[in-house]
């Protein structure tokens, strides 16, 4: 198996060139279909190499037809960026369904799940590094170094993006941390940042003021923890390498992440 054209549905909303590789997994991850979006100049500029953006929750990134509750519109946003002269390959890694929390969480949380579920983030990062990234770098004209490799996600995907940046800075140079669910493991999340070297790349961190309005305490936790993480990263010396965006009316939904994605990618794919 290898990359082949995306199997679009009649109601698909994909813009540009999207490819898929079916049945990609490892010992800890059930097979899933990877998605790769190629920038507009890919076929017309054969000598050019591109940075790569790795998206979690890949089924929600490019196509409303496969999404759980809406899409990020990453293909449209990247097309807009390309018109401004910023081009990148984008890779969507679908989550593992019921295993999503386990894959994206760095530690178990029995109080949240009622089980010992969780703690699969290290294995998931290993899956990205050992299986997904070679499938991308081995077939496309990428810039494979960490300075040209971005990992981005929302909610639990935001947590695992930061985890990947902190634990494998030799692979992932920049992270997009959107609407992070730090409340699922605040001690672990903050301790990891406190005890890790200061990232040398860029971090985009954002939050909405209405992340879970049906649960006011949860809504406040999202907002409070994101601001606390901003403060911690600044204390660690991130400075201009950190971009923090807070939207008081922002909700916990793909529509909010789609709206903020252009700014996030402009920052994360920037020079320097």
Overview of this protein structure:
By secondary structure, the chain is an alpha/beta fold. It has one domain: Alpha/Beta hydrolase fold, catalytic domain (Rossmann fold, 3-Layer(aba) Sandwich), CATH 3.40.50.1820. Helix content is 34%, strand content 22%. The protein has 8 helices and 9 strands. Strands 1-2-3-5-4-6-7-8-9 form a 9-stranded mixed sheet, sandwiched between helices. A hairpin with a 2-residue loop joins strand 2 (17-26) and strand 3. Helix 1 (74-83) packs parallel to helix 8 (254-268) and helix 6 (186-195) runs parallel beside helix 7 (216-235). The protein is globular, with a radius of gyration of 17 Å. Pfam families: Esterase. This is Alpha/beta hydrolase. It comes from Deinococcus aetherius.
Outline the fold blueprint.
Elements: E1 4-5, E2 17-26, E3 29-38, E4 52-55, H1 74-83, E5 89-92, H2 100-104, H3 110-113, H4 121-137, E6 149-154, H5 156-167, E7 174-178, H6 186-195, E8 203-210, H7 216-235, E9 242-251, H8 254-268
Parallel strand pairs: 4-5, 4-6, 6-7, 7-8, 8-9
Antiparallel strand pairs: 1-2, 2-3, 3-5
Helix pairs in contact: 1-8, 6-7
């Amino acid at each position: 198996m290898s990359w082949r054209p995306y199997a679009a549905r009649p109601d698909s909303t994909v813009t540009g060139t999207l490819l898929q590789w079916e049945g990609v997994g490892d010992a800890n991850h059930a097979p899933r279909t990877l998605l790769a979006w190629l920038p507009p100049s890919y076929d017309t500029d054969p000598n050019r190499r591109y940075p790569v953006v790795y998206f979690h929750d890949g089924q929600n990134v490019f196509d409303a037809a496969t999404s759980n509750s809406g899409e990020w519109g990453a293909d449209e946003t990247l097309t807009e960026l390309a018109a401004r002269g910023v081009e990148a390959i984008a890779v969507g890694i679908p989550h593992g369904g019921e295993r999503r929390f386990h894959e994206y969480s760095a530690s178990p949380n029995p109080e949240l799940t009622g089980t010992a579920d969780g703690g699969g983030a290290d294995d998931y990062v290993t899956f990205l590094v050992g299986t997904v990234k070679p499938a991308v770098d081995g077939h496309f004209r990428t810039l494979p170094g960490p300075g040209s490799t971005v990992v981005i996600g929302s909610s639990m995907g935001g947590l695992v993006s930061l985890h990947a940046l902190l634990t494998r800075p030799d692979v992932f140079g920049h992270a997009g941390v959107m609407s992070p669910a730090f409340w699922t493991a605040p001690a672990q999340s903050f301790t990891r940042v406190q005890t890790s070297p200061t990232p040398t790349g860029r971090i985009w961190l954002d939050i909405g003021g209405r992340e879970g309005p049906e649960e006011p305490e949860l809504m406040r936790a999202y907002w409070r923890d994101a601001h606390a993480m901003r403060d911690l990263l600044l204390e660690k010396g991130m400075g201009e390498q950190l971009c923090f965006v807070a939207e008081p009316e922002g909700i916990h939904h793909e529509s909010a992440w789609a709206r903020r994605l252009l700014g996030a990618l402009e920052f994360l794919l920037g020079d320097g």
